[in-house]
Amino acid sequence: MILASWNVNSIRARQERLAAWLDKVRPDVACLQELKVVDEAFPHASLEALGYHAATFGQKTYNGVAVLSRTKITRTIRGLGDDDPQARFLAVDVDKLHVLCAYVPNGQEVGSDKWAYKLAWMERLRAFLDAHYSPEDRLVLCGDFNVARDDLDVARPDDWVGSVLCHDDARQRFQAILDWGLVDVFRRQHPGGGLYSWWDYRMLGFPRNHGLRIDYVLATESVAKKCVAAKIDRDERKGEKPSDHAPVVVEFVA
DNA sequence: ATGGCATAATTGTTATGA
């Protein structure tokens, strides 16, 4: 089974690239973030034509998450179960797997209101896991976490010391999510680091490979132990009109 | 200290991202 996570940075701007990529990779499940579109304008028809069911939790202009699946989606939970108006979380069941798709807030600047919201949001995500699932479940939590876990996940760590992507307080919230009972399956496959999922559009970030790994596939151990391959599809950061994020693609055996 | 690039709201400029 192939599972992917990709922050597309507008599904409408990325529609052609997304379709070509789905056709090439044929993931069984794909978690998408930053749709920047309301549910009514989500491109269901073109994705159906490619063989995908879709669950969406969209929003005008900002945020928005979706899960695509080649098999039927049997349950959908939109949001973390509170009155937060930002569309950043979607959980579905597909086959015998819980699939959770998250777009963690960026936080803008340490000390800002958005920063406080980011930390609180990550705590709410951990609480949601506690309330709804067991670490014994077959579960994956994928998405853009807007946190580089370790300096191994940062090309130029000195540039990012204390920033919203690398701050200890954010890393602690991330670790609390892992400590619930999740494995960073990409890290397990590539313990040496030095592989990135996001590069700034500016300052020749991608040609210089000044990247960070902030997109993740996390899995409970029963799923993680079936992982046979994990990669970041750097080719998707090349060419015309790329997202600033590349997809993370993970393969599991039966 | 700032912008640098991209997107979506709109058509000149702002909010946001990471």
Please specify the SSE layout and strand pairing:
Layout lengths: L1 E6 L7 H11 L3 E5 L10 H6 L3 E5 L7 E5 L3 E6 L10 E6 L2 E7 L9 H20 L6 E6 L12 H4 L7 H12 L3 E2 H5 L8 E2 L11 E2 L2 E5 L1 H4 L2 E6 L15 E5 L2
Parallel strand pairs: 1-2, 7-8
Antiparallel strand pairs: 1-14, 2-4, 3-4, 5-6, 6-7, 8-12, 9-12, 10-11, 13-14
Helix pairs in contact: 3-5
This protein binds one DNA strand of 18 nucleotides through loops.
Q: Whole-Å distance between the termini?
A: 7 Å
CATH class placement: Alpha Beta
**Radius of gyration in whole Å, from Cα?**
17 Å
Rounded average pLDDT: 97
How many helical stretches?
7
Strands in their spatial order, largest beta sheet: 3-4-2-1-14-13
| Quaternary assembly | single chain
The name of the CATH superfamily reads Endonuclease/exonuclease/phosphatase
Q: Return the domain count.
A: 1
CATH architecture identity: 4-Layer Sandwich
Largest sheet: 6 strands, mixed
Q: Give me the count of strands.
A: 14
Fill in the CATH topology. Answer: Deoxyribonuclease I, Chain A
> Could you name the ranges where pLDDT drops below 50 across 5 or more consecutive residues?
none
Order of helices and strands: EHEHEEEEEHEHHEHEEEHEE
Structural class: alpha+beta
What this model shows, in words?
The chain has 254 residues and is of the alpha+beta class. The chain has a single domain (2-252), classed as Deoxyribonuclease I, Chain A (4-Layer Sandwich), CATH 3.60.10.10. The protein is built from seven helices and 14 strands. It has helices at residues 15-25, 44-49, 113-132, 157-160, 168-179, 185-189, 221-224, and strands at residues 2-7, 29-33, 53-57, 65-69, 73-78, 89-94, 97-103, 139-144, 183-184, 198-199, 211-212, 215-219, 227-232, 248-252. The strands form three sheets. Strands 3-4-2-1-14-13 form a six-stranded mixed sheet. Strands 5-6-7-8-12-9 form a six-stranded mixed sheet. Helix 1 links the parallel strand 1 and strand 2. Helix 3 packs parallel to helix 5 (168-179). It is globular and about 45 Å long. The protein starts with a strand and ends with a strand. The protein binds one DNA strand of 18 nucleotides through residues 9-10, 12-13, 34, 36-37, 60-62, 106-108, 114, 146, 160, 163-165, 198, 200-203, 205, 212, 214, 241, 243-244.
